[in-house]
Amino acid sequence: MFDLLSLSIFCIVSLAAYYVVYRYRNRRLYELAGRLPGHEKYSIFGSFWLMLSMPRQDYVPCVMDLIKDEQQVTKVWLFNKLMILTKDADFINKVFNMHQTYNKPDLFYKGFMTTKGLITLAGSEHKRHRKVLNKAFTSKMMQRLPDIFDDKSKKIIKNLCQVENCGEFELLEFIGPYSLETFGKSNLNYEIQYHKSDIFHAYDNYSSVAVDYLAYSMMGVSQSLISFTKLGQRIKDTFQKFDAYFDNVIKVNSQNNNNNNIGTDPTAIDILLDPNNGFTEEEIKDELIMMLLGAFETSTRIISMTLMMLGMHQDVQHKLIKEINDVYSTEEKDVKFTTDFLQKFPYLEMVLKETMRLFAVVPLVARETSEDVDINGYTIPKNTTILMSIYAMQRDEKYWGCDAHLFRPERLENGMEYPHAWAPFTGGSRICIGYRYAMLAMKVFLINFFRTYTVDCSQKFEDIKSEMTMTLNFLTGYKVSIHRK
Q1: What is the pLDDT of residues 61-82, one digit of tens each?
Q2: Integer Cα distance of 304 and 300 in angstroms
Q3: Which CATH number fits domain 34-484: 1.10.10.10, 3.20.20.70, 1.10.630.10, 3.50.30.10?
Q4: Considering the entire predicted model, what is its pTM?
């Protein structure tokens, strides 16, 4: 009994000593944190367990509830990690453009389960990868994409004949393959039948798997420790499909490279496989996973969301169809898609931007301070996570008016009064590398779609329910019905 009591006392004293030493070593952190407004009731264990027990559909609303309208930032603690929450457009824009907030926190991005891709890389390694891969997304490269998007969109739209006039169907089953086929053709020099393929299912599941793993990764639990669980098996199945697909991509392109088939305008896979660029096998695989993820999640979800919005708002759909018909009535019969030609559809761009405003595909974005930094009068300590709610910012009445919660593309007719309050592709030097690619892909698809079909959606706008995976996902699905014009 005495030994047990002694051991208990020793443990308590040791923990107390550790706490005192920890607080002393991090006294500046706590001093600066004490000056920041926030929620002390969520300190230490409170916010940690709150997040672990919270359903995914409550993540974004919880962040929105924590952010106070009367202040730019809100402090919370995640275990012993200081976090700053914000939806302020000026504050977020400065974070995007400061070198002290260039890196992303491992705390949140471990869930991707890749470490060598643009989304997760930090510092000089990220800058090296970004500089080299930018060559695949230059303005010159963009000029060759519309033909590819035109061909692939017409193929998918032709396949839609099997569901026309047949009631509502799930859009993702058709739009997902379009996103994969366009990127496969344009940047991987590789084509397969993507509809219901293994790689389609892998990406369809990846976001959900990654978020489910995030809670474990934040506690330091490795994938090997959960390998025998259902989640571990889902992770294994997903990455086996990734490996099989990208092994084939690399094999085909390596053979082409050996035969000197690389053109003067190298694609992303050409750049990654070029030995002069010095990418390791792990870096190549991780970059391919992340780039195709970006193409799949962005184009697939935004096109699907846009079609749903137009199905719910028939007046907007009629106005868009009129714009498309008017443009084609003045063009030659066989007019080709070009970047200049796509500029003739301003209302289409407004519709897309309004959809992305209401439904930020990446609703929460995180950065980490590399040193103490002053932003808008607040001193943010080193190693603080800044969690930015793009979703909340883009629905804030301060920037978008009293009808900010409604779908109204006309609000963008004269530009944006607060351009920094629209950031679906983030901003600064870490802005999405493929944002121009995504906009072109979405515009071409929607133009071709509405030259053939109209769309209806029985779901009500106010009944949409979403959840936070790696991207924003509609829990209520992406179901519409289509009718040939």
Answers
A1: 777 777 766 789 998 887 778 9
A2: 6
A3: 1.10.630.10
A4: 0.91
